Amino acid sequence: MIKICSAALLAASAFGSLLLSPAAPAYAQSPACGAAVDAINAAIDESGGNLDPTVQQSLAAKLSAIQADGAEKEAIAAYARALTDDKVTSMDAATDELNRVCKS
Fold first, then answer.
1. Closest-CA residue to 14 (of 32, 50, 41, 52)
2. Which has fewest Cβ within 10 Å: 32, 43, 62, 89?
């Protein structure tokens, strides 16, 4: 299943935004959140927002490799799982949680 992401999610840098549209943008507050945001932004940019299964698998692997602790680790892992779960049709819940945990 292709997960489609709109460009207005986590405002990670001055260069662009990332995934789906949350109520308010979140900014990376730690190296782990910064790495996750960067990986997601790169995947969105490279795929034009259409995360096909290959992109989803690659992004999930990159996110899973990020060293994080506590709530950040859980949110990043949940996002990675949502990318590869065929039952997930919207990334909204995973995005909202990542935004909540990673906001400054």
1. 41
2. 89
Nearest to 36 by CA among 91, 90, 80, 92: 80
CA count, 13 A, side-chain hemisphere, 20: 17
What pLDDT, in 10s, does the model give residues 58-104? 999 999 999 999 999 999 999 999 999 999 988 999 999 999 998 85
Q: Both tokens of residue 92?
A: 């909204």
Residues spanned by the domain of 90: 3-20+27-102
- Report, as an integer, the average pLDDT of 20-33: 59
Q: Which helix (DSSP H) or strand (DSSP E) does residue 36 occupy?
A: helix 31-47
Packing angle, helices 31-47 and 53-64, rounded to 10: 170
Cβ-in-10-Å burial (0-12, 13-18, 19+) of 85 comes to middle
CA distance 20 to 5: 5
